[in-house]
Amino acid sequence: MDIKNRADILSFGDLCGRIQGLYDSQNISIAYVKIEENAISHKHDKMEEVYYILKGEGIIQIGKERRKIGVDDVISIPKGEYHHLENTSKEPLELIVVTHPRYDSTDVHKKE
């Protein structure tokens, strides 16, 4: 049985913000992400993502489309689409990110 507490998991900085990897298998990754200000626009050629917003409010941009997001919103991000979150609240934006297939740092491509 593999049980972890998020407080025991180290975080790292990424284009999306501060990330804590919660779970990995061959097929998916699950991470907790905290965005203080804004994430940097990027895409994934191999991975698709689903965001679940836990705290805060913001704007998601996927391709050319922009929409307001907030607590309990679920956002699907297809592979190959540039995307980023902008934090519009005074508190950090906190979310769960599910990546399929599993997260691969070599598949994060910053928008030029």
What labels describe this entry?
112 residues; 3-stranded antiparallel β-sheet
CATH topology: Jelly Rolls
Number of domains: 1
How would a crystallographer describe the biggest sheet?
Answer: 6 strands, antiparallel
> What is the arithmetic mean of pLDDT?
94
- Strand/helix succession: EEEEEEEEEEE
Rounded to the nearest angstrom, the radius of gyration is: 13 Å
Query: N-to-C terminal Cα separation, in Å?
Result: 43 Å
**Oligomeric organization of the protein chains:** single chain
Helix content: under 10%
Q: Strand order across the biggest sheet?
A: 1-2-3-10-5-8
Q: How many beta-strand runs?
A: 11
Any idea what the shape is? globular
CATH architecture field: Sandwich
Structural class: mainly beta
Strand content: over 45%
Identify the CATH homologous superfamily: Jelly Rolls
The helix count comes to: 0
Low-confidence blocks of residues: none
The top-level CATH class is Mainly Beta
Notes on the structure:
The protein has 112 residues and is mostly beta strands. It has a single domain (6-110), classed as Jelly Rolls (Sandwich), CATH 2.60.120. It is 0% helix and 51% strand. The chain is built from no helices and eleven strands. The radius of gyration is 13 Å and the shape is globular. It starts with 11 loop residues before the first strand and ends with a strand. The model has no long low-confidence stretch (mean pLDDT 94).
Task: Provide the fold topology.
Blueprint: E1 12-14, E2 17-24, E3 29-35, E4 42-43, E5 48-55, E6 58-62, E7 65-69, E8 74-77, E9 83-87, E10 93-100, E11 109-110
Antiparallel strand pairs: 1-2, 2-3, 3-10, 4-11, 5-8, 5-10, 6-7, 6-9
